[in-house]
Design brief:
With about 270 residues, this protein is α+β, with helices and mostly antiparallel strands. The chain contains eight helices and twelve strands. It folds into two domains: about 80 residues, no CATH class; about 150 residues, Flavocytochrome C3, Chain A, domain 1 (Alpha-Beta Complex). It is elongated and about 65 Å long. About 35% of the residues are buried. Bound molecules: flavin-adenine dinucleotide. The site of flavin-adenine dinucleotide (FAD) has 17 residues, from strand 9 and helix 8.
């Protein structure tokens, strides 16, 4: 299902390894409409070894000052701090259907590693943590355009000094300034220069926390067949149903909110059927 709906390399996911879409498959077997299958909860994760395999752990490092995310051209493409960062990673090249901005990299400098060591992985997974004395050398290690990376770091540092991100508005909203940045950092709690060696890079891969695709339901949480007709006695809630928000995040609990609400609606209607 990943290959069909999210073509492109996926080295690890952040969802439990036992969640492999059984609910979606069972729904399909009884003629249910699946929807939003190309949508997911996507965010940055740090790879850790868990139960003998790579597992993504939600990361907060790219929220902090002295860090940015770039693509293979060494260019930023998103406000790293915003709620919907996952949408930029889900964006596909319309011609090839493959991720438009991946591979992407989190870039840090020495100021970051000194101030926020807690945000870096305690034990790095091979191939997922790079360090160099110059941005040029770092770019060569991770196969990113060196001039692009140097120019971006310079531009980003200018934004950090004045406290305004002219390109993507990072740190410009109340949400940005109050969630996960460094409250003591001035003039903007999410922007810090990237200019002191050594420099660090970690990949920002498509990091799936869970699907937003599944059975279509009506407002009573009844599951719909291909003709939009409710299947008697079949209800769905949670990750197994087509999430009403899709990939878009609308605030904390974007996923759990609908899961719980739909569970409540499904329970009430099933009990009174
Ligand atoms: C690391 C991480 C962080 C997250 N953070 C947030 C957050 O901050 N805010 C937010 O809103 N959402 C967050 N989410 C998403 C949220 O946790 C999920 O959307 C939610 O837990 C889904 O609930 P669910 O009951 O639908 O599915 P699950 O909680 O996945 O439950 C499904 C259950 O079904 C079981 N199962 C699977 N197959 C079978 C089978 N064949 N037979 C019987 N049982 C089976 C599974 O073992 C599992 O226990 C996060 C998710 C992850 C992975």
């Amino acid at each position: 299902m990943m290959a069909e709906h999210f073509p492109g390399p996926v080295e690890w996911t952040a969802s439990p390894s036992s969640n492999t879409g059984d609910g979606q498959l069972m729904a399909q077997e009884v003629g249910v409409q699946l929807d939003h299958m190309d949508q997911a909860l996507i965010m940055g994760t740090t790879p850790v070894m868990y139960e003998g395999q790579l597992q993504g752990q939600p990361a907060a490092d790219y929220f902090l000052p002295h860090s940015m995310i770039v693509n293979r051209h060494g260019r930023r493409f998103v406000n790293e701090k915003q709620m919907n960062v996952g949408l930029a990673f889900a964006e596909k090249n319309p011609e090839t259907g493959t991720p438009a901005h991946l591979p992407a990299w989190r870039i840090y400098d020495a100021q970051f590693s000194k101030k926020y060591p807690h945000a870096l992985p305690k034990k790095s997974v091979p191939g997922n943590y790079f360090k160099a004395d110059t941005l040029k050398e770092l770019a060569a290690q991770i196969d990113v355009d060196a001039n692009g990376l140097e120019q971006t770091a310079q531009r980003f540092s200018e934004f950090a000094r004045k406290g305004v991100d002219d390109d993507y508005g990072r740190g410009g909203s109340v949400w940005d300034r109050n969630r996960g940045g460094d409250p003591g950092h001035r003039p903007n709690p999410t922007l810090g220069t990237i200019e002191q060696a050594p420099f660090y890079a970690m990949p920002f891969k498509a990091s799936f926390l869970g699907t937003k695709g599944g059975a279509r339901t009506n407002e009573r949480a009844e599951v719909l067949d291909q003709n939009d007709v409710p299947i008697p006695g079949l209800y769905a809630a949670g990750n197994v149903m087509a999430n009403s928000f899709g990939s878009k995040g609308v605030g904390a609990g974007t996923t759990l909110g609908p899961c719980l609400t739909w569970g409540y609606i499904a329970g009430l209607n099933a009990a009174s059927a």
